[in-house]
Each structure stands twice: as structure tokens, then as C-alpha cells.
Amino acid sequence: MLYIRLTLLPFFFFCCLLIDAKSQTIREEFTLEKNWRFTKGDKPEAKQKDYDDRKWEVVTVPHDWAIYGPFDRSYDLQQVAVTQNGESVASTKTGRTGGLPYVGIGWYRNTFHIAQFDKNKKRVSLVFDGAMSEAHVYVNGKEAIFWPYGYNAFHCDVTDLLNADGRNNVLAIRLENKEQSSRWYPGAGLYRNVHVISSNNIHVPVWGTYVTTPFVSEAYASVKLKTDIANCGEVDVRVLTVIKDGEGKVVAQKDNTLGMHHGQPFEQNFIVDQPNLWSPETPYLYKAISKVYKDGNLVDEYTTRFGIRDIRVIADKGFFLNGKRRKFQGVCNHHDLGPLGAAVNVAALRRQLTLLKDMGCDAIRTSHNMPAPELVDLCDEMGFMMMIEPFDEWDIAKCKNGYHRFFNEWAEKDMVNMLHHYRNHASVVMWSIGNEVPSQCSPEGYKVAAFLQDICHREDPSRPVTCGMDQVSCVLENGFAALLDIPGLNYRANRYEEAYHRLPQNLVLGSETASTVSSRGVYKFPVEKKTDARYDDHQSSAYDLEYCNWSNTPDVDFAMADDFDWSMGQFVWTGFDYLGEPTPYDKDAWPNHSSMFGIIDLASIPKDRYYLYRSVWNKNAHTLHILPHWNWKGREGQQTPVFVYTDYPAAELFINGKSYGKQVKNKASVESRYRFMWMDAIYEPGEVKVIAYDDQGNQVAEKKVVTAGKPDHIELIPDRTALAADGKDLVYMNVRIVDKDGNWCPAESRLVKFSVSGSGKYRASANGDPTSLDAFHLPQMHLFSGQLTAIAQAGEQEGMLIFEAKAKGVRSAKIAINVK
Ligand code: GAL
């Protein structure tokens, strides 16, 4: 038979049809992106099919209704004692959820068509990658499903609710976010994709395959594929599966016919010779393409992408991927994309991962919820190991209106969806069942942990399970930590050794580490190691010595990984700054409304700390980074420490030619193992130079920072030179002001205005200042420490995207990006 893949039906976006020779549609999949109608506020009648929504706003999904602000102190004020931060007295928390209007009810409506619809022969499902939150879904006026957890994907069979001709089906969705339902900015609305899948009666259902690699060696690997087949009754079914390598070559195939009497998934086993093993360094992927036949007719075709790799956790020795021990060099991230909010965008996610990759990061923890599928796909493709984590709350509340309201009824359903959705992904190497849940210390808490871990083992016996635990004394005593496959400790590195000795697993994972805080380009004097430091300007020092009372500097976590075999590495809190949780400025400290934990700021500009991690983690490239900047008018003659982050073992500092001495990494303190610190450096305008030396004392690299002169012009540095003409691709433009010689002016806070013309539009901007109230979506933004990021979005037409930036008193800049 001949199969033709058609794409792009005029009225659907990203529509995909599989058609056999007799022109019978086998499977049709498309996302509903354009022409949604949206309104805020409750409109119970809007579920009706013939409701007039013409006055509603027209939006494109993914859509986050709250990201347009404006920021306001009054949004979601929370009167709480954050017990996990050691608080016992309630206080007013400002900006905890980002100071954005995510609370409330919102409605979305759209229409979809199913080609060649026949109620008796077809099944149609809707898949929501995530809807924030408490989603009631109506199709043609009838409720199709309710799904409360805003982070999880869910699906429903809507065949029986469709119009007989398959056309003009009205989809209406009511979403509601309650106040005090989150500890960070959750986003609001249909912030992830909505898929429509139409198949034959007999079909592979949503997330209907499960692939594992039970044996992996360099010579060969075994691949086991289990395929659910819906509605096949008790008849014989034939499944022809081919496995294709990354180049599309068939490397294995099986053609089996099986009576489905046992009600089990259809199982096929393959051998792939000389497999290309998946790892963060070699993210090689295969595809299993299965054709399902009944009575000689093709009824479905289903593709499962997977990787071949072996994961093992060994007591005393740690985590092994493909037989090689590695320590997780991971970061925790929340799901928001800074100025884009929670609305998922592949280019934005790719930008995040690109920066993290260059830092040497190899793992992501999706704290503390299910990720967007686009992120998991990218981690497969770009090479990141993932810890996927569903919950921040179980049955005991952390937030008044948090997930605990649903836990008892929904936890298992949420777990099963997460596990089925992501268990075929090579990147996913472990599940976490929760984060710092209060149940850690409750007498029955271990039972809940066992219940959740058992669901993971039942649905996916191929991966270990962890949990992020912060109540170390409780969990070491009460059996909670002992029952997990991998004990994960959040912070408390000083208790790792004790935990290692006391726990039967004889392993410790740093499931959450550091919580070092800093503001990009802001340096505080005198330079001191401090917990919970607060300043009048509501910033934290970028010397990377400030952290929370429960946490530590990054150096401590490096040392744990370097010194102990049983230490499995870490997931830093956090890779990127996120909206909400503005610690240490969370107690009535408006206007702070975004985090300071990020290694990279909210504008996706690396802070100095990025280079500290890079100097330890990136083994393929050298790092030589100097801080602070060298524009300190008024500090002439004063002590202004200079730090250098580098992988080289020794370095010498010169200020205007005068040597401040050569330093060699040493164990005098945990910081001096990983950074050079010239604490007695004296500021004078001019040039700071560092020369790096190798083990033999040879000069191998050099770097300079100079005092910038008067601001002269704007400089634009785009992260991409060409974009795809898909209406979604993004260019991140680093916007900075420089002097006449091109030296960056770090004190600049001028307002910059943008315009975008040609094939694209302005999308958003951010400056990384956690106190900034500039709206992201307006085409202007103040610089913070001399920089900001403006994001432009490709159009759907090929051509040039012209981006222009202007600011008072300096020359403007213009740049063209090819959209093709
Ligand atoms: C942890 C928590 C994170 C975040 C972090 C800040 O206790 O798991 O979600 O709140 O603290 O340090």
C-alpha cells in the first residue's frame, strides 16, 4: 500500500493526515492555535454551542492571560508563615506569585472540524498539554471533561459529542485560578497546546505505547515495545513495527499477529545491533513506527520516538549512564519563560537549554510540576537528563488553595497521565514524587510516599524514584527517606554524610541546592558571605556570596560532588530566575516580584554565577570571567574585590599594570577551591587584566575589563541570524549601551524604545531587575546594569525582520534578521 503524508490543510494549523491508498483517513492530528476567543470573568452561558462570542478578544494559544499585567502589589497578597523557610509567624507576602493578575476565571472558545467524520468508524480525542487551571471542557454545549491540575496533560474522547458531519464543533473551556493557590507565578489560561486527534475505531490511544531497553551494550541492545490497541475486540491484530535510526535507516523490524484475548498491550521485542547510545553528549534518537492491521486493512500508524540507554543506581557508587558514573550537573527550573510568561514557546525553551548547555549543565528538574511536552522533546534532542516532578503539595496544604484540595481524588490519575505521557523519553532518567511536602514529618507521610512511588514502579519499572526532602531529621528517623529508590536532599549539605551512613541506599542526591541569590551587575561592599542579606535598593550582591539561611554558596555543592563517590550531584535552585518568590524581599517588600536565585536572570542574561558553574561543569571549553565591572566613580582608592571564575588552576591579577599577585586554587576555604578572590584590590579607573596559567605555570589565557567612557550608542547583539517563517520563532536581542569604543556602560538604566517592522513583530522584553514594573509586552524597557533583552517574533512570510532600538541621548541601532 501507498501512504501519503499531507500537511497544512488551509483551515488547520500544523495539521497532519495519514491516508491509505483507498483514501481512507487513518489518523489526523492538529493543534488548535489561532482564532481563539477569550474573555476574563465568568460567563456560564459560554459553554453553549450558539453563544455569541464575537465581542471577545481574539487570541492565539498558547496564551497566558496574566502576563500583560500591570504589576500590582495587591494581586494575590498572601498572609502566611512559610514554614519550609523556617517561619513560624505569618507575615504579608508581596509579589509571591509575581504581582500579576493570574487569579480569576477565564473562558476560551474555538471551533474545529474533523475530515471524513463518521461516528461509527472514527474516534476523536482532545489532548490538553496543560490548562491553568480547574479546566471544564465543553464540546457542543456538553461537558467533556474536568481536570483540576493546571500543570498536567489530560485527554478525553469527544467522539459522541461531535456534530454528525464533523464540522463546526464548538469547544469552550472554563478555567479558574483561586487566590493563594501557588508559591510562584503559575500563569493563567490555555498556556500550553491543545491537540485534536482523529483515528479509526481501532487505534493506538493517546500515549498508547511503552518502550524500554531492557538490555544495552555496545554490541547490541534489546528494545521492548508495548502497544495498546483500543476497540480491537477479541480479534487477531497484526502489528508491523520498523525501528529506524536517526538517519531514517531501518535497523530492526517485527511483523506479528496476535489474538488480543488477554487484554494486554501488544508486545514486540527487537534487537538493535551496535546501537548509538543516548547520552547528554550524544543525544541519539530512534523511532519505532508501528502499522496496525485488522483483517488485512491498515487501521492505524503510530510513531514512538525513543533513545537507547542504560541507567543504573548503585549503592556507594552513585548514578551510571551507559556504564559510566556521572554526577548530575543539573538545575531546577520553574516553567515560566520570563517576559513570555507561562505561554510555551519552543524557541524560548531552546534558548534556555542552549545557554544551560554551554554552562555544562546536563540535567533539568521540572520543579515542581509536569513540564510542557516541548521541553521534554528538546531535552531528548539536545541532551539533558530530566527529573520530572509532579507535585509541590500532597494532601497537606502549603498554600491555602493549593493542590491538597484535589490530592486524594486526583493524585493517582495525575501520576498515571504524567508517567504515560513521558515514559518513552530518553531524557527522563528519574521521577520525583514531590517537593518538600509537609507529609515528610507526619506519622503517615511515608504511606503517601509509598503509594506514589508504587504508582511509578507499576507504570514504569524502568526508572528510579526520588523525592525532594528538606526535613532531614524527620525523614532519617521515620522511614520516609529509606523507602525511596533515591534519597534526594534539598539543601543541608552538612547532613549529606550522616544521611549517606544512615540510609540503606547509601547514596545522596542534591535534589535542590544552593539558593544563592544575586542581581545581575549589582555588587555590594564590603564583600562578605551572608545569609538573608537585604539592602535599601532591594537587590542582592553579584559576588555570589549571599544565600538563604537554609542554603549555601555554589562552592559547597561542587565540593560535595568532588569529594564523595556516593554523592550523586545536584540540581541547583535555579537555572533561570522566575516570576514570583522574590526571596529575600518577599515580606512586604514590593516592588520585588521575581526571584533572585537564577544563575541566569529573568531576561535570560547570564549573571556572573553562570561562569562559576561553567568553570566547573563545562569540560570542553575554557572559562575566564572577571567580576565586577570596572566603572566605580566615587570608589577611587577604595577596596573593590576582584573575583575570577575559571577552570584554569592559577591566575594573576593586574590593575592598570600593577600585579595583585598570582593565586592558585587551594583548600584554605571552600570558595578558594573554586574561585580566585583578590579581596584587597583597589579601584582606580582603567583596566583590570587577568592572566591564567596551566598546571605547568605557562601563561595560557588573558582577559580584560575596562572602565567605560561616556554612553555613546546602543549595541544590539541577536542570538540568531535567521528565523523560521512559522509565526512563532524568536530572536533574543541583547540591547546594551556602549561608549564610543564599544565598551559596555554597566551603570546605564536609560529607557530604550523598540520598533519592529517587516516579517515579524515585537513580542516582549525584560531587564532582569526583580523590582522593575515595566510591562513586558510594551515596546520599551529600562536597562538594568546596562543591559536588557528584547524579543521579536518571526512572521509567517519570508523576508527581513527589522529591529530598531532608540534611547534619549545616545545613537540608535537597527538590525535585520532573515526570516525564511
Ligand atoms: C525550596 C523550595 C523551592 C524554593 C526554594 C527557595 O525550599 O523547594 O521551591 O522555594 O526553597 O530557596
**Structural class given helices, strands, pairing?**
mainly beta
CATH superfamily of the largest domain: Glycosidases
| Low-pLDDT residue spans | 1-15
| Lateral arrangement of strands in the main beta sheet | 25-26-27-28-29-30-31-34
Helix share of residues? 10-25%
Give the CATH level 1 class of the largest domain: Alpha Beta
The overall average pLDDT, rounded, is: 95
What gyration radius follows from the Cα positions, in whole Å? Answer: 27 Å
**CATH architectural group of the largest domain:** Alpha-Beta Barrel
Q: What small molecules are bound in this structure?
A: beta-D-galactopyranose
Query: What is the distance, rounded to the nearest whole angstrom, between the alpha carbons of the first and last residues?
Result: 35 Å
Question: How is this structure best described in words?
Answer:
- The protein has nine helices and 50 strands.
- It has 820 residues and is mainly beta.
- It has five domains: 128 residues, Immunoglobulins (Immunoglobulin-like, Sandwich); 125 residues, Jelly Rolls (Sandwich); 220 residues, Alpha-Beta Barrel (TIM Barrel); 83 residues, Immunoglobulins (Immunoglobulin-like); 107 residues, Immunoglobulins (Immunoglobulin-like).
- The radius of gyration is 27 Å and the shape is globular.
- Beta-D-galactopyranose (GAL) binds next to loops.
- Keywords: Glycosidase, Hydrolase.
- Belongs to the glycosyl hydrolase 2 family.
